[in-house]
Amino acid sequence: MLPASNSGLRKGMFVTVTGGPGTSGIAAADPYTAMFDTSITDSFDLVFFDQRGVALSGGLTSPVAAATFYQADMRTDTPAREAALKQAARTFSQNCVNEMSNPVSLPYLGTVQAVEDLESFRQVMHESKFWLYGESYGPRETRRRELIDTVGKTVQTIVESYDRNKEASELAASIEAAVAQTALLEVGAVGLGALVAIAVLSSTLDITGILTASTLAVLGFFVIPFKRKQAKDRFKEKMLSLRSKLLGVLTAQFRDESENVIARLKDGVSPYTRYVRSERERIDKAENTLARMRLNISELRARSQAVVAK
User: Fold this and answer.
1) What percent of the chain has pLDDT over 70?
2) Which tops the pLDDT comparison, 260 or 116?
3) Domain ranges of the chain
4) In the predicted model, is pLDDT for residue 97 greater than 70?
5) 184-209 confidence digits (pLDDT tens)
6) What are 71-75's contacts with CB under 8 Å, separation 24+?
7) How far apart are CA 196 and CA 191, in angstroms?
8) What are phi and psi of 6, to 5 degrees?
9) What is the mean pLDDT of residues 143-148?
10) Of residues 69 and 170, which shows the higher confidence score?
11) Considering only CA atoms, which of 73, 91, 90 is closest in space to residue 82?
């Protein structure tokens, strides 16, 4: 529990119940508190806790069952997917029971007990009421799945933009053109150079094997190694560009999602912040009125003493 930073403005307790299910409220206390508006931290005692069976309140875990379930398709847009998700949830529940270290405690870890614990805490703290901020498991999991799907589709689009067949065709055409140009330059005779070019491009003409041998020599010693290096360099450039695009997309997606999460949290607590602000304004007005009354009383006291002294 974190006491209100301004005890003079204290309104009560602000209790946060984290979702998950199974998320540790104590572990989430610091990041959550950092996101709360100062009107809450000033006026409320912030309370975070681990619900029954979670972390410091039992430490029951089922990581294997959870990891398996989180890989399931969470979409329910078709009857088949809805049925599959229901079956995955049933399997998840059973696997959790089988994996947890103390399954006999399961009947005491339900929603009813969680509410009773909150009420018992309120009574122990002698509070007539407290403000409760709870998180839901379902919507957060849905948003997580939507984020994964969006990123996956974007990545797939970027990867598919790289056409391997087109790159191979361009490389082959580049090698053919380079061989023809090399033959024309090296021989120095337009007639023989033209024959070599035709031989390379069509692969149908051979003069006593000499032309083929010359072509292979040019290909093997000069053109192919040079073009292979060019191809490697171009491939590296394209891969760097692809990597940069992927990194940019992922960074933008996760930045947007983090901003949306913070915005949703602020929207969730906005009714409390508005209430606190209105209460603070009311108290400020009351304090100003009281200050004026004290000043008036002081003036009246001074006047009365002056009258008595006469």
Assistant:
1) 65
2) 116
3) 1-61+100-135, 138-310
4) yes
5) 444 444 444 444 454 445 444 444 45
6) 74/141, 74/142, 74/145, 75/145
7) 9
8) -120, 95
9) 63
10) 69
11) 73
Distances (CA, A) of 231 to 14, 51, 306: 63, 60, 104
Beta pairing, strands 131-134 & 44-48: unpaired
Instruction: Cis check for the bond before 225: say yes or no (omega within 30 of 0).
Output: no
